[in-house]
Hints:
Blueprint lengths: L1 H16 L19 E2 L9 H7 L7 E3 L1 H6 L3 E2 L6 E12 L6 E14 L3 E2 L18 H8 L6 E3 L6 E3 L4 E3 L9 H15 L20 H21 L2 H18 L4 H19 L2 H10 L1
Parallel strand pairs: 1-2, 7-9
Antiparallel strand pairs: 2-5, 3-6, 4-5, 8-9
Amino acid sequence: MSQVYQIITDRIVSLLEEGTIPWNRPWVGGPSHERPANLKTGHNYRGINVFLLAAMGYSSRYWLSFKQAKAMKGHVRKGERGTPIIFWRRFEVEDRKTGEPKEVPMLRYYSVFNLDQIDDVQAPDAVEIPDREFTPIQRAQAIMDNMPNPPRIEHIQPRAFYRSDQDLINLPKPEHFKSDVKYYGTAFHELVHSTGHEKRLGRRPSDVPRFFGDREYSQEELVAEMGAAFLCSEAGIGQVLIEDQAAYIDNWISVLKGTPKMAIKAASAAQAAADYILNNQNSQEVSNEES
Length: 291
């Protein structure tokens, strides 16, 4: 059983390291808003499996095991990797005390593939929910557009993350966010991450590994959210996001408990990042002298 837990834990951690927190997303995920389901059985997935599958970002809600796809005359494309999910199976064993047979649940896992990864299997007609209309917020958009030496920003995958090795930010499409404000709050968070690149403030060298839950990772997330809060305030949208940001910041502060200097250092770094994005050269010099 411990092996199953480790596999699923490793998967969740890898998603978190990519910046994907599927149970706390400010966007709805694109064309398909329905719960992940098994195409052959028609059953919706439950529990942690919902999060594991939804986080993958595929356009279809339907999944199949390799055997199910084959039974439906489908073909998993060469090179595609499955997504692990868990299930409980009951086994009959002998009770050591009474000698009587009894059933015990055992945790098991297997991999499934999204219909986007399978050829020759037709999905049922999807119920499409029209995209929300996106209206740019002028002051917030200006902050994004006027950042000096900006990273490349794409709207391809339904995930939000910054990759320092590519100096790339990916955001879900603006119309997929629950509100225009949440789009900019998320964008600012990733922009602050990008200021840590060697060619900007050099806060987080790309060749230094960081792992979810360690101090460096936690502090960088705290920097990103504090910096996003500063930028939201500058854009006039700070009050709308304050609850989300307070909860997020509180989570990372709990990781940093017992090291108050790290919280102060994170706030200083967040201010320097916001100043860089806003091109406030004088303010940035003051921040650097104080740090």
